[in-house]
Amino acid sequence: MGRKYYCDYCDKRLPSGSNHRKSHNRGSQHINNKLLYYLRFQDPVEILINERLKTSCIKWKQSNSCLFGNNCKFSHRSNYELFQLIEQAKQNLNNQNNFDVHRWIQRKLSNESILPESLVS
């Protein structure tokens, strides 16, 4: 008996063996969980661009539920949520513009002898 395989996305333990792992990785629940995991790290600007290209989901507006969930090709976000995304995108862009590489490197590496001459200001 080998060790059991643990899927981080699904929080499940599977029997050892590549056949079990491959069939699990092809399952719709695993694929959806993996998609949700990576969507958490998506940049707000990218989310905003994707949401602006979509039209509103009629089912979501009527019943606040949609059979397709995250796989729906229509947007499930309200105008307020879109406004919040715009504000997050603005804030991220401002934070990126104020980022100083030299200061970050010096904080990470306190010993200046390690730094190459091109990075020392």
Automatic annotation (TrEMBL):
GO terms for molecular function: zinc ion binding. Keywords: Metal-binding, Zinc, Zinc-finger. It comes from the Eukaryota. One of its GO terms (cellular component) is U12-type spliceosomal complex. InterPro entries: U1-CZ_Znf_C2H2, Znf_C2H2_sf, Znf_CCCH, Znf_CCCH_sf. A zinc finger (C3H1-type) spans 51-79. Gene3D superfamilies: Classic Zinc Finger. Pfam families: zf-U1. Residues 51-79 form the C3H1-type domain. Transmembrane segments: none annotated. The keyword 4Fe-4S does not apply. This is C3H1-type domain-containing protein. It comes from Rotaria magnacalcarata.
